[in-house]
Each structure stands twice: as structure tokens, then as C-alpha cells.
Amino acid sequence: MEAVKENISSHKYFFLDGFSELGELRPFLFIPFSFMFVVSLFANSLLVYVIVSQRSLHSPMYILITSMACIDLSLPVFFVPHMLLSFLFDWRGISLIGCLVQMYFVHLLGAFQSTLLLWMALDRYFAICTPLYYHEQMALARFLKFVIPSSIRNMFVVLVVVSLAGKLPFCLRNVINHCFCEHMALVELACGSTTINSLVGLISVFLVPVTDFFLITASYTVIFSSVLSSGKSSAKALHTCVTHIVVMTVSLTIILTAFLSYRIRNGLPAAIRIFFSILYLFFPSCFNPIIYGIRTAEIRQHILNTLRI
């Protein structure tokens, strides 16, 4: 009888076992990921410092870039330090509560990465298509009409995904084949049906990054049409649009590859799935400062001045 109870008890403690197939080579992963972590922290901190300290950069567009940098600065903190300690010292344990908390903040901040791109697209739409009303449209009270609904959407969708995962009984293995508490990596350890969890997780992808992508594309389609039909100088506008579209397309491709790899079993090695899951969170944190900071002339000049001091 006791054996039966033991079998149906739900695990409350897990071990993150990502890249275990690398064996003795696993600790060497500390080098590239720690380098990326340092680059992310330094680049985003520098970007935030430069924009906050320069009054000439206190316009809506630069405030949105600062918000993006803050998200990119915060997101890796929730999973990279634990991952690096796992590589270096083999510290792999995490409680179920800690796992769910990590999952919530990682996925929530990941959702805001794409939503901030949408807000940036709206900023460019108002600046290029309705320049006379730009400051009126981007006033805080008006812009909150776009910020609040999308923020509530992100928090609600992620909360539902994490709550459903937390209600599952984990009576199989307690070894998560991942480097952080990714949703499906935890769900696949549950006993019983996980169809709803898988479906809700997939729906969340289409409700947040995919929806944001289509809205961004629609915004830039209108911008392109406006620029081309009016005969205005389009170089800067097109440069901004193409940059946003390229970044969002690359990010969306990585996200869909990571999410679908857990739902379509096609012989894809576990290490590849884990790599893409880490990449879709870590890639924007390392490269957004370059794309939205260094490539913006005003910010680039202030950064160079700061580094010379």
C-alpha cells in the first residue's frame, strides 16, 4: 500500500539536466553562455544609462528603447545564473515552486520582448503617418490605451499557462531535460493527459508573439504605403521598418522552432531543442542593444562619448 502511495505522489523537487548528453564537455558551455550574459548585462546597462542621463533622448521612441533594454537586462537574470552554476558546479536542483516562479517571469518577460516591438511600431506609425499629431498620440494618457490591454493580455496568458502546469501531478521522473523551467519541458514529466497544457501553450504563442508580428507587419505596411504614395524621403523610414521586420521574423522563427519541437516528435536531438529554447530568450537580450542602440545615430554618439570618458 505504501508503495502505491509513493508511486502516485507528486514530485516537489526537480533536477535541470539540459545538455547532459555532452558528458564531460558540458562544463565548457559555461564559457560561451557566460560571455553572452556579460555582453547582455553590459550593453543593456550602458544603453539605459545613456538614455536616462541625456535629456535630449527623453522622447517617446528612446523611452521605448529604454524599456526594451530593461526587459533584456532583467530576463537573463531569472535563468542564466542558475544555468551557469549548473554548468560549472553541477548545481541542478530546483523546487517546484521555484520552477513555476522562474517559468512565469521568463515567459512573461519573453512575451514583452515582442510586445515592445509592437509599441515601437506604433511609435513609428504615428511619427511617419501622422506627424502633426505625433506628440498628442504618444502622450502617456493616450498611449496607455495600447500599453494596458497588451500588458494585461501578456500577464493573463502566461498566468494561465503556468497555473495549469502547476496543477499537474508529477509522478514520473523528476529530471527536467532542460537548463531552465521551460513550460513543455516540465509538462512532459506529468502523469496523465497533458493535451490541454500543450494546446494552451501553443495558443499562447499565437496570442502573443504571432499576433504581435502580424500587427507589426500591418503597421509597417501602412507606413510603406504612406511613404511611397506621398513621395517623402523614405530612406530613414524604410531602414527602421526593415530592421524591425527582420528582428521580429528571426525571433518568431526561433520561438516557433522551440515551441513546435516539443509538440512534433521528429527525431530532433534534445540538445537542439534546448539550444533553440535558450536562444529565443537570450538572442534578443544580446543583440537588441546593437540593433536599437548602436544603429541609432543619436544614441551611438552619446555611447561613444560616454566610453571615452
Describe the structure.
The chain is mostly helical and 309 residues long. Helices cover 73% and strands 3% of the residues. The chain has 12 helices and 3 strands, in the order H-E-H-H-H-E-H-H-H-E-H-H-H-H-H. It has helices at residues 2-8, 30-53, 60-74, 80-89, 96-129, 134-137, 140-166, 183-187, 195-230, 235-261, 270-294, 297-308, and strands spanning 13-16, 93-95, 175-176. Strands 2-1-3 form a 3-stranded mixed sheet. Helix 5 (96-129) packs antiparallel against helix 10 (235-261). The chain is globular, with a radius of gyration of 21 Å. The termini are far apart. Residues 1-7 have low confidence and may be disordered.
Number of helices: 12
Q: How would a textbook summarize the main sheet?
A: 3 strands, mixed
Morphology call: globular
Radius of gyration: 21 Å
The assigned structural class equals mainly alpha
Tell me the series of helices and strands, N- to C-terminal: HEHHHEHHHEHHHHH
- Please list the strands of the largest sheet in the order they lie side by side: 2-1-3
Contiguous uncertain segments of 5+ residues: 1-7
Mean pLDDT, to the nearest integer, reads 84
Distance linking N and C termini: 72 Å
Proportion of strand residues: under 5%
Number of strand segments: 3
Q: Which range best describes the helical content: under 10%, 10-25%, 25-40%, 40-55%, 55-70% or over 70%?
A: over 70%
